[in-house]
Amino acid sequence: MNGRIVLVTGATGGIGREIVHRLAARGDRPLLVGRNEASLQTLAQEVPGGEAMVCDVTKRHHVEQLVEDVINRYGRLDVLINNAGYGRFGGALEVPIEEYAGMMEANYLGAVHMSLAFLPHMLQRGSGRIVNIASIAGLTGAPNLAGYCASKFALLGFSESLQMEFAPRIQVGVLCPGPVDTPFFRGVSPFRYFPSPIARRTLPPSVVAEHALRLIDRPGIKVIPWTLGMAIRLRRWFPRMAVRVTGHLYNTLLRQKSASAVSPLTGKE
């Protein structure tokens, strides 16, 4: 079914940009939501039927105004894709507490604000779809990603709860990709942050976007790539072994980083 009104938060990022282009290509009407008006307007000019709508999803009054604007203009919202968010790498004691709060606000509460604001309108119509872009970090802890993992764990729990409470009228899908080649890494190789078995499976935003669109029609919890999905299943079956193996992989990575950061002549960075 095409011609749907689909709102995408974080629309100007790598994954969001790919999603809105694909939505337009299949005949849907994408509403592009983000904080940077200039970037949104530029993207809207590239996307047939796209409309830029400035909103900070971490601010409740911004979200309430956005919902009012969407309902007044279109009378409905068929699909909400919560994609806005960010991550901060660093040891649990190195990342400032403000960043923990910031990731929880953007990655979790932003999706909560948007979902709860649009849900009454979807329920009134008797139908609606919500797709939340989470992460494999929402299914397993990882060193140097404590705050990010916590925010994505929260998003997974919230999403499953909504599905249980409102299905079949409202269907909720959750996408959990592994590392994605986006500005998340700030130009640094994923191999700096992830063990090789994970970093080698870094996904292009186009692949993530394609899977996100599939969840509109077939909601569920989807882990990509499938190899990491299998690893998550093994973690559930053998949790202690999985924790030991994961710890070993990351400890090996840490030793490699420490060795490469030390000069062989001076012993200093």
From TrEMBL:
Pfam families to which the protein is assigned, alphabetical: adh_short (PF00106)
Gene Ontology CC terms: membrane
A single GO molecular function term of this UniProt record: oxidoreductase activity
Keywords of the record: Oxidoreductase
Secretion signal, residue range per the UniProt entry: none
InterPro entries: NAD(P)-bd_dom_sf, Sc_DH/Rdtase_CS, SDR_fam
Membership in a protein family: Belongs to the short-chain dehydrogenases/reductases (SDR) family.
PANTHER family given in the database record: DEHYDROGENASE/REDUCTASE SDR FAMILY MEMBER 7B, DEHYDROGENASE_REDUCTASE SDR FAMILY MEMBER 7B
UniProt-recorded name of the protein: Putative oxidoreductase
Source species: Polycladomyces abyssicola
Record lineage: Bacteria, Bacillati, Bacillota, Bacilli, Bacillales
